[in-house]
Amino acid sequence: MNNLEFLKQINSYYPLSDETTADLAKICSEESFQKNEHLLESGNMARYYYFIQSGLIGYYTTDDEGNNRYKIFFEENSFVASTSAIIKNEPSEFSIIALEDCSVIKYPVKAFRELLEKHHDLALFHIRYLEKNWVVKKEPLEVSLKFETAKQRYLLLLENKPLHDRLKQHHIASYLGVTPTQLSRIRKNTNKL
C-alpha cells in the first residue's frame, strides 16, 4: 500500500511515526467496488474501515415501506465506516453503498484497534478524527435535520456544488426526506432566487 493522500489525511489530524506508518501499511489493502455495490449491509457486523481514493459513497437506512433514506454522502479522501456499530460491537443499523465506481483502502477493524493500543500517535489521530467528524461536523447536521426545512437543507447541499452535481435526483430527494416531485418544486423555487 502506497497511498500518499491516505497518509496525508491521517497526518493532518496527528502525525504518525515511521514505525506506526509501517505497521498501519501492513494491515491495509486496496479494493474496488462497482456502482451500487455494498461495502456494508444493514444488519451485518462492520469489519472494515475504508478510505475513499476515488468515487462517491452513501450511507442509508431502509424505512418500513422499503424506501432507502440517505443519511450522508462521502467523497474522495474521506474515511468511511459504521463507527457506532464498531464502537458498540453490534450489527450496523445502516448500509454503506458505492454510488459511483469506487477505489478504497480498507483496513480490518480488529487489527486497527490492536494498533490503537500499541501506538499512541495512531490513537491520537483516531480521537481527533472522531472529535472533528463525529462531533463537530455531525452535530450541525443533526440540528439541520430536526429544525430546517427541506428547502433550507437543499440550499446547504448546494453549497457543495461538486457533490450536489454528482448525486442522482433520487439520492437528493431521499436525503432531504421528500419525494422526487417535491424536490422538483424545491429546485424550481430555488432557481428563482
Features:
single chain; 193 residues; four-stranded antiparallel β-sheet; 10 helices; 51% helix
Count of DSSP H/I helices: 10
Strand proportion: 15-25%
Unreliable stretches, pLDDT < 50, 5 or more residues?
none
Q: Tell me the number of strands.
A: 8
Helix content: 40-55%
Element order: H for helix, E for strand? HHEEEEEEHEEHHHHHHH
**What's the rounded overall pLDDT mean?**
89
Measured between the Cα atoms of the first and last residue, the distance is 48 Å
Radius of gyration over C-alpha positions, nearest whole angstrom: 18 Å
Helix/strand class? alpha+beta
- The strand order across the widest sheet is 1-8-3-6
Q: What is the approximate shape? A: elongated
Question: Helices and strands in order, then pairings?
Answer:
Elements: H1 4-13, H2 18-27, E1 29-33, E2 38-40, E3 48-54, E4 57-62, E5 68-74, E6 79-80, H3 83-88, E7 95-98, E8 102-108, H4 109-118, H5 120-136, H6 138-147, H7 150-158, H8 161-166, H9 169-176, H10 180-191
Antiparallel strand pairs: 1-8, 2-7, 3-6, 3-8, 4-5, 4-7
Helix pairs in contact: 4-5
Task: Give a verbal description of the structure.
By secondary structure, the chain is of the alpha+beta class. 51% of the residues lie in helices and 21% in strands. The protein contains 10 helices and 8 strands. It has helices at 4-13, 18-27, 83-88, 109-118, 120-136, 138-147, 150-158, 161-166, 169-176, 180-191; strands at 29-33, 38-40, 48-54, 57-62, 68-74, 79-80, 95-98, 102-108. The strands form 2 sheets. It has a 4-stranded antiparallel sheet. A 4-stranded antiparallel sheet has the order 2-7-4-5. A hairpin with a 5-residue loop joins strand 4 (57-62) and strand 5. Helix 4 packs across helix 5 (120-136). It is elongated. The model has no long low-confidence stretch (mean pLDDT 89).
